[in-house]
Amino acid sequence: MRLSPLALLIAAIAVVGAVSMVLAPITAAVAADLGVAPVAVVRAGAAFGLATMFSALFLAPRGDAIGADRALMQALVVQIVGLGLSAAAPGVVWLALAQAIAGVGSGMALPAIYGLAPQVVPKGQENRAVGKVLSGWVVALTAGVAGSGFVAEYLGWRTVYATFFALDLVVLLLLRRLSLEVSRGQPTSPLTALKVPGIWPALFGAFCMMLSFYGTYAFLGAHVGDVLGRGADGAGWVTLCYGTGFGLSLLLDNMLDRLPRRVAGALSMGGLALTYGAMAVTGSGYTALLFIALFWGITQHAALNFAISRLAALDIRQRGAVLGLNSAQTYLAVMLGALAFQWPYAAGGFAACAAGSCALALAGAVEATRIRG
Q1: Which positions ≥6 away from 358 have C-beta within 8 Å?
Q2: Which pLDDT band, with edges at 50, 70 and 90, does 163 fall under?
Q3: Model confidence over 266-293: pLDDT tens digits?
Q4: Identical fold at 5-177 and 190-368?
Q5: Minimum mean pLDDT range among 1-15, 58-72, 202-216, 225-239
Q6: Fold of the domain spanning 5-177
Q7: Where do the H-state alpha helices sit in 178-230?
Q8: In sequence order, which residues have a C-beta less than 8 Å from that of residue 17 and are 6 or more positions away?
Q9: Cα-flanking dihedrals φ and ψ of residue 60, to 5°?
């Protein structure tokens, strides 16, 4: 049976993406088993994020020289080591070090996956390939993150990491069976990537999109639980609606792909801004929030596809370095989202967070209208 490179990349995103989010829902179980406060486990998770950010900046560019396929396989080996050590962690310090190792693998893997997607499809299908690969995040969010809570509850949190260890290993072994024609060139760096024409406005648009997402998402659980009184299961249904919309957005990829890039960017980012605006106005009702979350997923996927495709096309010789910059700023947005949006949430609740995200998405939409072509 012939392996589909695109299907394997979707699987890789699903596993690597889930690993980056899996500690949060099992924090309580990990803390109880290790005999520490939950905040200590959260700090261990922060080691993952910091390692991912620095790895994306300084190690992801290796893919430009050795090829994104080899970079991805090396990244999976590093992450497998980190996952194995996480599953065996006897204490929280060990866990933090293991998470940092796994984070190094993630920082290398995500840019390599995004960089490979346009190279494994015929010319003219690059944007759609990126859109399909992004659908792996739906699996990561629904099956990976939601499923990990169930596994931790009945089989223990170490089984969660052992499972991802096995899944990463399967993806690695299947990747080794593929024969891909992948570009290999000269060594690059974040500094050379920052000199690529068009990189600064493209990074600005992508950062607006990701900061708008994480700023609102960081306080979604608190809003649903504390204000709407729905608890953790209520937030889970909102996330499920978001994930459903994210997957359904694949149906729009062909249509957006036919539009000029300026128009596609303005529509996707503008649609995202409208979604946040509607969330700010009607998010105080749970049923309305579920409905809006569906469109949130649709518009977020469209905007993310636009941003990644735009960055990947800037300079194919420096794709690894360019996408590494984007991965690094994504994790920066994760941290800044919770920090910067705490003041709007304290002052005006979830509606204020959504309004702030609306403003950021609008800034991204305005920037998109300035794209040539």
Answers
A1: 212, 273, 276, 277, 280
A2: very high
A3: 999 999 999 999 999 998 889 999 999 9
A4: yes
A5: 225-239
A6: Growth Hormone; Chain: A; (1.20.1250)
A7: 190-193, 199-217, 220-222
A8: 110, 136, 137, 139, 140, 141, 144
A9: -55, -35
Q: What proportions of the chain, in percent to the nearest 5, are helix, strand and coil?
A: 85, 0, 15
Distance CA(312)–CA(155), nearest Å, equals 41
| Spans of all domains in the chain | 5-177, 190-368
Architecture of domain 190-368: Up-down Bundle (1.20)
Contacts of 257 (CB under 8 A, 6+ apart): 127, 128, 264
| CA-angle at 264, arms to 253 and 317, nearest 5° | 85
Closest to 22 (Cα-Cα) out of 160, 154, 163, 170: 160
Strands (DSSP E) contained in the chain are: none
Q: Residue 223's pLDDT is what?
A: 86
The pTM of the whole model exceeds 0.90: no
Mean pLDDT to the nearest integer, 352-364: 97
> CA 73, CA 178: separation in Å to the nearest integer?
11
- Residue of higher predicted confidence among 185 and 201: 201
Contact status, residue 361 vs residue 269, Cβ threshold 8 Å: yes
Rounded to whole angstroms, how far apart are CA atoms 87 and 129?
34
pLDDT at 1: 55
H-helix or E-strand spanning residue 102: helix 92-116
